[in-house]
## 1
Amino acid sequence: MDEGNNHTTMFLLPLFPPKETLSRRHLQKSPSSARMPLHDDLLLNGYYTTRLWIGTPPQRFALIVDTGSTVTYVPCSTCEQCGNHQDPKFQPEMSSTYQPVKCNIDCSCDNEREQCIYERQYAEMSSSSGKLGEDIVSFGNQSELAPQRAVFGCENLETGDLYSQHADGIMGLGRGDLSIVDQLVEKHVISDSFSLCYGGMDFGGGAMVLGGIKPPPGMVFTHSDPVRSPYYNIELKRIHVAGKALNLNPQIFDGKHGTVLDSGTTYAYLPEDAFVAFKSAVMKELHSLREIEGPDPNYKDICFSGAGSDISQLSKSFPPVDMVFSNEKKLSLTPENYLFRHSKVHGAYCFGIFQNGKDPTTLLGGIVVRNTLVTYDRENERIGFWKTNCSELWDRLNVSPSPPPPPSGTDNTKSTANMTPALAPSVPPEYYATGEIKIGLVSFYMSLSIDYSELKPRVPELAHFIAQELDVNVSQVHLMNFSTKGNDSLIRWAIFPAGSADYMPNATAMEIISRLDGNSLHLPDTFGSYKLVKWDIEPSPKRTRWQQNYLVVVVALLVVLILGLSASLGWLIWRRRQTLPYDPVGSVETMTDEKELQPLN
């Protein structure tokens, strides 16, 4: 790791390019896409994750989305050196659809030459190795893409950060035959494109899409050359700070692999001369801030205090930065794209861009594209950037919620027979087991070891995390009521149907319930310890005839009111004209009388 790194840094570029061959695929039809939420936080966790389900019945995993990796892998039940991660290890023996990938001429094989294996080593000195298997992969209830068979790695050994991280494994989005993107493109179920949108400094999470989307107006594209490098590169030519170009030779951003975009890396890294120029230019623009020590004495972070805690006001203290591409298009960065919060000093921030040692590669990690929709349009060899609020991406794109994919033929719900008593529903089992009920909402109680006065201003943030964990829109999460006992808070939440629907699909409700039942919610430590006390499903609240037809009634009343006012006004005008005396136009008396008109009796 670079000495400027924070301890949560991830640096997931393989040391050696993968052996998989590259190929361009042009599809005439790509009917589906997989829309998936992103979880966690770039600076708190060092990465973003998405949820993937593998096997029959499905086993859930939290995987780091990584454009620098080409293999998707999860810890295997046979692993003897795997860390303690977020979810249980994958159990191939429990999946009726799992098949090992047998040894062949296109893969590396185990010592017995029976099964294909994989090995990956990363720049921050972590590694993963295991055997390759094939099974059904599902993408969640926001995806219109049906479950697909795919090859993935079943880990038998992991070291370094991969061993100690909370996330289960890696979702490889890079270029290569084992990449999940390449496999889906090969099946002709998605177009050769995917998009990532990372949340900002205030909120983590975000969204991703496997498959194509319509580029929004204003999206800026730059060429990406798949022949030059196995990584996703862009043609960066200049950097502007406060509107002034850094005095650098454009070739400085073209060394080795060029300028690489890597979602699995936390921060950004510039060649030595570029970093020195960037640091100097930014510091010249800081007039009211004071340089302070970084949060960790082991690192020489460059930090400043006095900017305040309001992220929307950071641009008043820190200068804008533009990245200019070879086609003269530019990506404008706000301070949250090159700063991270000081963890020990309120209102202080540190540089999130560092010197890349003596390596000539320019590496742009996730911090640079926070609150930016990044489209990896591989079919057209280009990458697009669009500044937006990633926590509200679908609203910003005017995209309605995706319908659930067709049933995979497997039962994705958990049996209530093994529920803990605390989480047992208060309705009879036959109420939700029929598969034909109309579910209006799913409610649950959450107990947190935090005083409500401290929790209250953070309720929107808590709702945001709950929405991420349950794979629903934040607008569906409602706080119903709360109570306090000592320093603890008890909150009743409800998950309502998406949009204006009266009911939610049974599959969606059962997916939410399975996560509540399995205590699968993971919240940041800042919310203290918590537990789910009870969940329930309820029909849609019955509406009276007035509630059902209130809009028609209101419109009718408004029409009657407007007509009444119009008639009264017309009558008053008519009376006024009848009362006033008539004089010839232009007479002196008339002009005098008009000036001295008295109110009508």
## 2
Amino acid sequence: MGKKRSWVWEYAKRKGDKAYCQLCDEDKNNEYSCVGGTTGSIIRHLKIMHKVYQPETSTSKRLSSSNNLEEIDTLQDTDSLTNSQSSSSSSNNSFTQPSQHNIIPRKRRRFLTHDNDTDRKCSPERTETIHKALAKLISMNQLPLSFCSSPGFYQFMAVVEPNYKIMKEEALKKRLHFFKSSIEEKIRSDLKAVQSVVCTSDCWSSLAQNSYITITAHALNNDWSRMSFTLTTQEMEERHTALNIADKLENVFSNWEIKDKVTTVITDNAKNVVNAVQLVSNTTNDNISDVTCAAHSLQLSINKALREDSISEILDQSSKLVGHFKHSNLAKQSLLNKQKQLGMPETSLLQSCKTRWNSIFLMLERIFKNRCPISAVMADRSVTSTHIAQKFEISEHQWLKIEALVFLLKPFQVITSLLCGEKHSPTSMVRPLLKKLLDNHLKPQDNDDQSITYFKQTIIFDIKERFNLEWDSKSRVSVRQIASFLDPRYKNLDHEPLFARENIRSSVINLLNNIETDAHNVNTRCEPSLQQSALEFLYGDDVTEVNNLTTEFQNYLAEPQLKFHLNPFDWWKSKENKFPRIGILAKKYLSIPATSVSSERCFSTAGNVVNSKRTSLLTKNVNLLVFLYQNRNLIP
């Protein structure tokens, strides 16, 4: 008996593995798949589009009636089985003949219904928790304010919390301002508890040509722990004159209630900024204005020494060579292949940047380390043409000079990294490190050529002049010298000339005489008490104070000098009770950072906030986002 033809083909025709509906217009897409004779797709089309269903045949009627009879029989059998079981239980017969129709009906399958995620309600408490977490995410990851309204975030929350109502941008700003207020309150509390504050400042222009000024604050708390805060990143619409910058600084100090506590402002060597700091210093109780960024000053000295003609020629040639490998994908990939063949790390060359510290050293060091693979690529004519090879060729004499420059610039890179480290590096380190740099790494050698000799002489002279390392009768004691004496690692002043050491100690004694302490009532005459002896009463407190200060100072001098790699703040934390007055002075001077790198890093953050896609960001929102990110460890 042959296979029965389906009813579908009365309304459709088949060509190979395709079925075509005859009820549709010819200009419509009426082609459907019927691989192997399957009719599912065309049946769905007939039912949905044309309301055509399978006709009811006699066979299907019989099956339907038989199914109904079976259901009746099943119900009867179930009743008879129930009756037989009840009669069996009432009788004492232990065996019952099974009936021919004792059919146990199949139980209907039951499906467990779980609450769908879309039916789960997002409570107000959980909604607020998500709101705060989203605000914290935007603050800590430098995300745009529009992140919560982006399609990707909608899809993400549809999976995580389907019934979460997305927060509007105004509600987000409200929570960000709440974070800012909480952080400001914490910073004010911490700054109020300290005796002195040091600030750093720098100016910067965004991609939208908006000028900003950033101010950071640094201090040591009662536990000698270092604290650093970013106070503000404000737009500066005025010209960058010394008077305008000084007014901006004073306004910020007044708003944060630290005007009487600021001892100095660390900046770069720009003349207008230095003059602004001097104007601010003249309005405070302390006239500390001779401290500039040590790393910036050091880079100025390096750049001056690198201006020698032969050195400039090498730097220019090296920069062109790096540019060739940066712009040629073939040369870059060939360099990586040569490095791999020689068993060297696969690294790209680095380009120097005038505004990036130590970038010249990093460029020369990377070139010198990769001399062999670079030479191999330049000699491969399938990669580098003869014209290009001659244009960027570095001679043997130049390779030797590059090696000498790498050796000379390495100590400067190390000292810059130390002064700009993440951990607070006090200004007390500057003069001792420079002394070691000059004595151990810049001494003239017999095999130095003319350019290297010029480099050493130029940089030695410039460093001594910028940092006032030379001492004469007209010299005055600087802040860095006082800080070095108060640092237990350099208290012996071995890095200073002999005739300068006594002047530094005398200056410290003068500063100690002006210190007032609440704990010891140094400058306050008190009433005689029962604990005083008769001699103490007769001599008076003045003599006692001099003796106490002199003894404290002499005991400090007698203390062994701390090793250079140990933490001076831990030393002072354990010795503060023994030297209370010197400790107060040390806390003031050791809180002064060596560089203004904290402000520089703040502008790196601002550059991530005001990027090429967010140049229209309002300046107040720039300040908000930068403030939250820089102080993210204080976000509640």
## 3
Amino acid sequence: MESALKEQRDGESVVDLSTPVGGVEDVYGEDCATEDQCITPWTIAVSSGYNLLRDPRYNKGLAFTERERDAHYLRGLLPPVISTQELQEKKLMQSIRQYDVPLHKYVAMMELEERNERLFYKLLIDNVEELLPIVYTPTVGEACQKYGSIFKRPQGLYISLKEKGRILEVLKNWPERSIQVIVVTDGERILGLGDLGCQGMGIPVGKLALYTALGGVRPSACLPITIDVGTNNEKLLNDEFYIGLRQKRATGQEYYDLLHEFMTAVKQNYGEKILVQFEDFANHNAFELLAKYRTTHLVFNDDIQGTASVVLAGLIASLKLLGGALCDHTFLFLGAGEAGTGIAELIALEISKKTNAPVEETRKRIWLVDSKGLIVSGRKETLQSFKKPWAHEHEPVNNLLDAVKAVKPTVLIGTSGVGRTFTKEVVEAMASMNERPLIMALSNPTSQAECTAEEAYTWSEGRAVFASGSPFPSFEYNEKLYIPGQANNCYIFPGFGFGLVMSGTIRVHDDMLLAASEALASQVTEEHYAKGMIYPPFADIRKISAHIAASVAAKAYELGVATRLPRPADLVKYAESCMYTPNYRSYR
């Protein structure tokens, strides 16, 4: 690492603040590589006194040392006791666990982030399995529904139709210049909850917290954005506490002109290597935006590509339990939206890559059911464009149970957003055809899951391999403990995005998604398989993300779209050294 030490004063090394000292542009000393170096708590000027205690990036609460209290004019502003970060973490976890309502835990975590950023991420990283359902799905869904009521301080940027023609100016209002990842939503399809308008901001905020905690992207490099074009949710329009535009949602040319201005301004302000993740856009806009900008910008849609990659990883890992190769299996989806078709396409690409068969041929092993029944060639004229590749020759089938009996799938995947659609009859039909049926109920939140883990195991007499989108508790059946897998996008997008950032990649390629899936599947061990798991435990997520980032970066270098040269010799070690660490730093 290039040293930032420029001169000596009174025998002490002084850092040139204009020089990156960690990974790329680590101006605040956030990466693991700089953990042992002293830093200066500065914004425009060096933070000190009361302002330092109110700055969440640098505030350490009672953990300021005696020397730091003298150097930064903190005497008398804090009680005399000096705490440790570990003791602070213990105290806060005890406090959070006293709340019975998950939303109260969410609010407590957000308040912590606003006053002590490093402690927030320390809690989240060290207690990831406990706190992940709080800061993200399922609790974040309820938080978005009530965002107007719990809103205290703005997080991120709000860009509405009022800012049309001035979006570049709005982006320049954000205090950070070295942004690496933007997560943006228009709030039209938040989880399985529908149109939440401006209150969808909870999703970009939550996603970026996970980019940092799970993937190691610096908080200072993250920017959550909500595009507010109105809402068609009458309940919100009539809610006195609603924080967004009180108008019907803009559509058509007006909508796409605003999004084009936004994408142009982002590239102009932050450059070619800024990653823009589209989040929770409605199907028709999600596919259109991804297709339009994937050749000109570094863009990623987690609902289409991230979901596909994490599900493919589970499928690859499950082959150890199911037997055979991916090309030997038949797949049936309930749900043909952006998640379902995105997963289906990535499966087809992986089979094509392994067998050298054209993707048009490998798609024939994959069937989709939408609200009107099995997608077949006879319906082609009335189908949306993204469904047409999945319209195979077959007689019409009107419901899922009949589709299961007709197609005889080995793998059943739910992305419908409709709860309890994998009925007892459906699961029993899957179990009657397969020794080990793979059942993936992926819809979020928990209430929208196609079936529960308990139902899948019970109705299949303990033979099902099960995974879901939201977490389910372990379940004992016939004296055997089953641990449900969670096909959570959090396995993929933090490491995937970090791999793009650390390699300076300028475009996302499907081969990178396949590399991410294979890297995740490789982290499942024999010990995990013995418990019926097809995903590794979340407790290892930082290690998993480093391996995914390294695999994605390696593929980017191979494809010639990585700009950070020379290529590091050991990409895993490089990823680990560039990861954000939440441990308190010593201040000069």
